[in-house]
Specification:
homodimer; mainly alpha; two-stranded antiparallel sheet; 6 helices; 60% helix; DNA-binding
DNA sequence: GCTTGCCTTTGAGCGCACTCGAAGGCATAC
DNA sequence: GTATGCCTTCGAGTGCGCTCAAAGGCAAGC
């Protein structure tokens, strides 16, 4: 099998869920893993639980096309913001169901947006505490916790 | 037993790890749970795994003083930023060991700070994707994933 | 034709952070 | 004195998201 030369997916493009145009049309599972930063184990797991469906080549090997890749990248973005896998699955089921489900999809994303904003706030708060501790340890300064 | 009237701890004060001055000197586990937003179960768990030590009153009931409360709040801040409990425990062990461990404590906090910044970045990225989806669903607009 | 390496499926196992249940003690209310 | 409600300890159970192991197939290199 050829050397793995698939570049990890660009963060900018990721934000908009467009894949780099120089990606091969079809990737093996190892290449998909390299491109997405997931492990082959995790890619199989995501397929098994129905988050994505993946073609097979003549030998029965997985063959990831752009659609599959795009979806996986989308899933990783949602996972990176701690959306539960079940919720992601539900959303993607709605996508599969097609037209008519947009209002619910919108509601899901709006709710998730609120969750992200809460998380951002919590993290800022934790960052403040951490900086406070760092400041306390950095000069010869006073009491620690 | 008296009604629970302990106010949840203020977020501003939380940031700097100072408790409101109108908190009772000693809190029952139910009051501590109310003040910190944790459950009594979780408070017992944190004590059991050595994150905090808590006094007992004459009847053997837990009695949380300001020191214990402050530490618990600190732990919740670190947990809110996903610091693993084992890492928190390690840090607090260093605190218990007292002088001489400051450099390692500083290093831990600096590493944690870097982790928080990464998380913030990831969340911003996820927020962008989420907003993108929301925008796609909100007017009568085009293709969804 | 055999080794090597990547692939397949299925099912089980793991680590983390809680979360709960059982069995019983204390103290106030009646 | 007994019911109520909050408390105790200890050990076990849960849910999530992977992660790994076993047993075997395919295909290129020697």
């Amino acid at each position: 099998m050829a050397e793995l030369l698939v570049a990890p997916i660009d963060l900018q493009l990721l934000g908009l869920l467009e894949l780099p145009s120089d990606l091969p049309e079809r990737l093996s599972i190892a290449e998909a893993a390299e491109a997405t930063g997931l492990t082959a184990h995790t890619l199989r797991y995501y397929e098994r639980i129905g988050l994505v469906s993946v073609d097979r080549d003549e030998s029965g090997y997985r063959s990831y096309d752009r659609h599959a890749l795009t979806r996986i990248v989308f899933v990783t973005r949602l996972r990176a913001s701690d959306m539960p896998i079940a919720a992601i699955g539900h959303y993607l089921d709605l996508v599969e169901q097609g037209p008519g489900t947009e209002p619910e999809r919108l509601a899901i994303m709006q709710a998730h947006r609120a969750t992200i904003l809460r998380r951002l706030h919590d993290l800022q708060s934790a960052l403040a505490v951490t900086d406070y501790k760092i400041a306390a340890y950095t000069p010869e300064s006073g009491r620690s916790l």
